[in-house]
Structure prediction request, 876 residues.
Amino acid sequence: MSFLHPLALLGLAAAALPALLHLLHRRTPPELEFPPLRYLSDAERRSARRLRLRHLLLLLLRTALIVALVLAAARPLVSTRGGGRVHAPTALVVVLDNSLSAGAVVDGRPVLDRLKVATRTVLRRLAVADRCWLMLADGVARAGTAEALLSAVDSAGIDPRRLDLVAAVTRAAALVDAEPLPAREVHVVSDLQRTALTGTVQPPRGVRIIALAATGAAPPNRGIAVVRPTERAVAVTIGGTPGTPAGPVTLRLRTREVGRALAAPQATVTLPLPSSPPGWWVGEAELAPDELRADDRRPFVWRVPPAARVSAGPTVGAFLSAALAVLTEGGRVAVGSAPPSAAGAPEVTFGERPGPGGGAAGTASASVVIPPADAALLGPANRALAAHGVAWRFAAPGTPGPLASATLGTLAGVQVTRRYRLEGVRGEVGRDSAVVLATVNGEPWLVRAGTVVLVGSRLDTGWTALPATPAFVPFVDALANRLTRGETEIAEAEGAPRVVFTLRGADTVGATVYGPDPRESDLTPASRALARRVLGGADVLNDGEFAAAAFAGTRRADASGVLLVLALLLAGAELGVATLTP
Amino acid sequence: MTSTTRLDLLDPAEVARLGGIEIVAAGVVEGFLAGLHRSPFRGFSVEFTEHRAYQPGDEPRYLDWRMLARSDRLFVKQFEEETNLRAMILVDASRSMAWRGAPERLTKRAYADRLAAALALILLRQRDATGLVTFDQAVRQVVPARVKAGQWSRLVRGLLATPDGRGTAAHDALRHLTGLLARRGLVVLISDMLFDRDLALTALRYLRHRGHQVIVFHLMDPAEAELVGPPEVRFRDPESVASVVVRPRELARAYRETVRREIAAWRSACRRHGIAYHHVTTDLPFGVALRLLA
Prediction:
């Protein structure tokens, strides 16, 4: 049992009043002469037992009356099996999954509408003593009053981000567990996508989780999961609910349709891309409209770089020379001096020292500098770097280790057995002029300083396993056409479908393609058993049961009415006993 | 004096305000005798003594028909008692008798004095030798039984000369009385009977055994019959240091039952021993109290 106004229980001290008044009142009664005292004594002796009982009964009745009134004022809440209208103060997080999949239309009604109705039902029953948060697909827990949270629910739309339900419920459970309230609950209001339930929630002891069950069978849906442009073609992978029949996929460049194919979920179709001149190109893959519109289109970007003119001395080694030959044959680079028709194409020099025009940023010449095989030549190489204004130099040999790179994913894990540490010249390392592109053991291994790119190892299998991997030629391609120009890889990010270009000055040096998480397209709901298991033993309930089960663990009935009736009865009994002529 | 202003039927307290004991007693007796159809205490003699003018209430059998024939006026014949009745009136003058439950009422002692004076006047008018004993824990005044003129005044003075006493020991007074009553006679005890019943009955039984006719007036203030008072009060016995704290309202019924039981016990015990017992409250008109003896 708990109390809405526990401070009122201080009034229980008043329960001692009848006894105190009785004792105080007895001390100074008026004194009167009364001759037939022997009759009085006799009457009292005969009535003593009955009077003692009566006094005790009156004392008990009056004490009980005060106790009942004080308890009624404290608004006691008692557990009820039925529908008590109040509940114990509860810490509550409502996880409203307004992720992309909630935008699906089922039976002519958006799933999000159903989720909002269930959420509002819970929020409207919040009491003043409750502490509540609302967590949306962005994962942010918003605290507030019932009115504020209801307003947030009303204004919540479809969020293109995916909600990691297990992580969200885990954080919500930890949040309510930190609250010093008698009850702690997490309400999961979601479409319970099967793909959203990976991992397992381990709720803290005493935290109750209830989840709204999914309705009906999985609605059919197709979505563009991945668009991967390659050489002269683009591969489009279709996601969605398994079993959904194939639908048409259209490829557009700007507004022009350039390809069309038929694809079902989990299938990949390849559509040709038209030949394009050098530059950044934006296209879009689109599906026919279905139950979930938000995943029916996804943009893509590809870069057609101008072929760099490369020159490499004999000291660069056989592997690098071979890679450049392959790139030359593929038209990715050209060898020799630039003809007049190729004006604007950058020139890249591979060698142990910077090329003649490299060094100053913004020029068309760039260099890729590898360490000399002979350690005795390291000093002249460093002096040449310094002469070209490069704020990095080769230092002492470093320890072997695997490569790690955020921008060059294909290098990750490639073993480096021999290397020189790259270190910046003190006081000359500018934040904009130097970018660490790859590391070994946390130390720079690939650094770009202006138009000069320094590599910590010779590109030889005696130094690193990289030349023996399939990633080597693309790496050299990136060195020649992208890294020396300061361009980055085309990144992908979760969000509303769009493309955001990265600019450096007037140059476009990168792009980020936003699109929804492919897993959002699979609308297959999790079974109740799976949801219960993943959500830490949550009660998975349909709409009606969900509304009834909220706060059910701590539902209380206000017993003050019963106590007031009891107080009335006690007052009546007291009046009867007090006024009854003995 | 008309029948509507008969003092014997008025409220005792109102009557007492008319004057002293003599005046009140005389008035009461006049009214009382006027309302009787026959004399209350007939003597044992039939010896003629004198004529008296007929008064309403006199029995027709005492009319002197010859005088009526001769003078055409109504006379009744009065007779001399052959054997003298010796009456002793015992008045309890203890402390408890000086109590009254309300200011507008007489104290029990005042009521007892006036009743005793009226009774003595009636007896003396019948030419019965009448005496008086007042007592509390001891005998305070003794007026021997006489029938001579001025006896009533002596009795009244004896009443007035007895102050309010302290405790009560009726059996001692009654035992002392047995020594004073050598001849058989009438003993009238006027008391609130707030003493040990068994001891008092022993003494009364002894008087009865000696051949006395015994009459007991058990005086009680109406406030003694019903327990009323503040919500809680300490009642103190005026004759002792004893006291008790009670709530009158919750003890009223039990008290009423106790009083009723006490009166019933006195009545039963007196009847068992041939003693006349009369319960009288101090708001009872004197005439009604006297009529109890008729």
